[in-house]
Amino acid sequence: MNSAVKNLNFRTVFDAAADAMLLTENTGHIVLANPTAQQLLGYSADEMKGLAIEMLIAPRYRKQYRYYQRLFLNRPVKRSMSVGNELIALNRDGKEILLDISLSPIKTGQQLFILILFTIANRRLDTEDALRSSEERLRLAKQAAGLGIFDYDFKRNIIYWDRQMRKLWGKHSEKTVSYEEFVAAIHPEDREARQAAIDKAMDPNSNGEFKAQYRIINPINGVERWISARGRVYFEAGYPHRLIGVTRDVTEQRNIQKKLQVHRNETENILKQQVAARTASAIAHELNQPLAAISAYSEVVLHALQNDSFSADNLKRALEGCVAQAQRVGRSLHELLAFLQKGELMTERSNLTDVIHGALSIVYNDGYGRFHPILHLQQNLPAVQCNRTQIQKVLVNLFRNAIEAMRNIDFPILTITTTVQTVNDEDVAVVIVQDNGPGFDQVVAKRIFEPFFTTKPSGIGMGLSISRALIEDNGGQLWVDSDAKTGAKFHFTLPFGP
Ligand code: ADP
């Protein structure tokens, strides 16, 4: 080695270094400070000697420094600047300087020294700028969202709050307020629930999240506002020490929600009334015919009794009629209720011809006798899948409507033609019921499926709307051919069975 190099001692190199350097003992006291360090920190060499490094650190970071110092002494290895070692130092005038530092342990004999090398961090300006602009962004966002910010210090029992919070709480002067003052503005009815939300968030086993909605009463004008608050509790050594959060005035939303709720309730009530009215009408529709028949049978019997003209046979027939009608009412009501309750629909493979014959005989028995039924049934028609009673009910309704319409015009021959056929390429049977009555115009045609639409003096207007619902429940469709020139022509479809 070159002898000149050999003669270079540590002190010469230390003082000549362009970077700031401090040599400290393991206690953290400065042994040496090179001229660059003295200049950077504003101290003379003598002033720095013996000074505790801690004194050169901004007070709020001292605790952190002690922690890192302990870590370093436990494992004294070189830490370079590039690994993010930075520190906010104080110069002699008390100005804060952000420094990048590196640490190197130097062991001589039993003694451990630490060489600290530091430079002013370039990031400083950027950081400050970023901080300023992010603060500005936060302020603007806060303003736009109408947010207030609060910071509740549990230990000191005070709340720091911003201008927006003070405005909501109706206080203008102080930047902090005692917790009691803060709570005083909260509506008494909402205090308990709010406190419970805070207690929950303060539980160290929780995630610290705080969420509450409560009313506050402005002490100046007595105006009540709804506040939505959200925040988080921060814990220190397992104890809650701060709750930081935001509040928002949600009075308008609450009002809109309330109006919507009132509106929803009203609509629901109307709907319930309508359902009740329809149910009652549907029941009346089922009862109407059999009751009329029972009444007619009874009158016949009474008349016969009064005139002493009854035969046991006639009496028996009339009473059997009454019994049959009464049983029919029972069955109808049972089915109707099942239908209204939307229980599971029981369907079976059914022969449409049988169903149509069954419906026709019901109509005959109801005393609608005077009409001429014509049937056109496609040969070898497969069975359909349906609830037979329901489809029979639909057919009875269509036949009855047809007869009532035809009776009105006193037509000499009342004919109802029922046609059953398949639709090409579709797996459905179509049933067409056509009468030779007056039919109806386009205006009526548009409304006949509406509940309560009737043109009959004693009609209820539920027959067709129930029929349509029944057919749809059975997987088909019911419609009317409004172009019919000769009477009304109803169509419905049913799916073929498997
Ligand atoms: P309602 O029989 O109680 O009036 P419906 O729903 O069964 O109830 O029928 C509604 C209306 O449709 C009847 O009032 C009538 O004006 C009309 N209508 C139904 N079927 C026929 C038909 N075959 N011919 C003429 N009008 C009909």
Automatic annotation (TrEMBL):
Its EC number is 2.7.13.3. This is histidine kinase. The lineage of its organism: Bacteria, Pseudomonadati, Pseudomonadota, Betaproteobacteria, Nitrosomonadales. Residues 282-498 form the Histidine kinase domain. It catalyses: ATP + protein L-histidine = ADP + protein N-phospho-L-histidine. PANTHER family: PAC DOMAIN-CONTAINING PROTEIN, PHYTOCHROME-LIKE PROTEIN CPH1. Pfam families: HATPase_c, HisKA, PAS_3, PAS_9. CDD domains: HisKA (cd00082), PAS (cd00130).
